[in-house]
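=== How it folds ===
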Amino acid sequence: MSNLEDNKPEFWESNFKEKQEMWGFEPANSAVWTKDFFIRHSIKDILIPGIGYGRNAKIFQDNGMTVTGIEISETAIALARKHFGTEMTIHHGSVTEMPFDEKQYAGIFCYALIHLLDTSERKKLIRDCYNQLNENGWMVFTAISKTAPSYGNGKEIGKDRFEQFGGVNIFFYDEDSIREEFREFGLMEIIEIEENLPMFLIVCRK
């Protein structure tokens, strides 16, 4: 069983059941930035690994993009169906099991997910996403920064990786680790962005 499967379902399922749409429906700053970026590059067809209940997907759909998602939480998928109907294709499963289809996409947006994975899983996710891009397609990842106040808290389980929040394993990035993991996959830009914690936008082109 993958670390993502260890971390995400129990944590998210319990929170979804208790709080339902716990983050509301306003898109993250990263999603707004990526939406504008995709519009500038005329991207119409996107994949969102870890789509959740769709709060970061709707902004793309509302701007004329076709959205396909991947989500491990059945509760999250049910909430997405409740609010967005069946217009979005959502594959049920872990991103560690990608690909779920043979399609290639013009854009991929992956929000606050990659840092939940271990080293081999992160490498596989990056490679799998890159492989599902069209030629000249773009992918944008959002990852937590080592400048976050929570860096160093909890049980250290590896370099820059800590067990926090009741059992969620989190890897904290800096620019060096981003370059190390993404340089073979069309890394174009690293941008600092503020969400509820300091994050990086990692922009790559195939």
Remarks:
- The beta strands are 45-49, 66-71, 89-92, 105-111, 133-144, 155-158, 161-164, 168-171, 187-194, 198-205.
